[in-house]
Amino acid sequence: MQIKTLNPLSKHALEEIGLEWHTDQDNTDYISTDLITINQAQADAYYAACNELYDMCVETAQMVIDQERFFELDIPNSIVPMIKQSWENDIHWHIYGRFDLAGGLDGQPIKLLEFNADTPTMLYESALVQWALLKHNGYNAELQFNNIFEALGENFKRLVTLQEDTSAFAQEYEGWKILFSCVQGSSEEERTTRFLQECAKSAGFDTHFAYIDKVEFNAETGVFYEGINYEFLFKLIPWENIAIDEPELAMLMQGMMENQNTIFLNPAYTLIFQSKRFLKLLWEHYPNHPLLLETSYEPLRNKKQVRKVAFGREGANTQILNPDLSVIHETGGIYGNHKPIYQEFAPLNKVGEFYYQPNVFYAYEACGLGFRKGGLVMDNFSKFVSHIIQ
Length: 390
Description:
Keywords: ATP-binding, Ligase, Magnesium, Metal-binding, Nucleotide-binding. Helices cover 32% and strands 26% of the residues. The protein is an alpha+beta fold.
């Protein structure tokens, strides 16, 4: 790996461009001064890999639905009707997701670790902050695998055109409104949500923002904020949290879908992709595929492996295991009640004591690359790393 050192943006400059979460809880900078240099062939390989992976996810999700395999994915029963309904109608369009990968540099093969398809963050820094860092350091900011803003705008248009070609959007758009919402108190989540709102607004949509506790839900009439009805609701709240922690809200949302008065973004079917146990079904559907790692619901035999749980986040409740299942490294967390999976270990690219994980955003096609830097398991203290194509 080739790594250069950037002059950092000051905290004040980061705040001016909207990145308030620049300092981690241990008082270290979240934005790394590392700059990873990749070549065009490596960028093209990430692009092609994630496009292929998404097609594989769609095919495998169809298998999940046809064979009613929601229970083994640890998906709550209460949300299955919404998953099925959202899958059956194209208007429940998937706006964006993020593939977490291993490899792709130094000759290491690209491997899928996870697909964060429902509520991925790291979006704002990938789309804007690394672009600003390159400009700040005198580089050509266009030399990135990064068209996230444009790709998101085009994909919002597909909520109306429902096809790859978005040229008919202006003629077909009839003023449908999107309300963007998240919980109050997280600057990262609010900035991510407002960035998505800006993408939709630039595409031509009528949009508004509201904290989720201010949004009114009505099974018969839909979503309202300050007396105005919205046809679409984007909510940066995981579907599994809604199903487990907010069962009354889940029932309301199901009623709204049945009455066809609200489209929820990202759609409920993204919970299939989001479950880490889906990785086992991908392996089952595409055994020995070069982009996949062997994954099982039971410990793998005689292989170094990673034990994760279906809906863990930020690297929580993860164990790295030797072939004899002795623990090399583990993290704690609050997700231990979810069902486990065992995934063959794939080494991340490493420089010195740090590991680097490529993360590729997807919005109808792969559209942007960023890296995280950290220890054996990427967690809340991992750093964001920019890249340049040279």
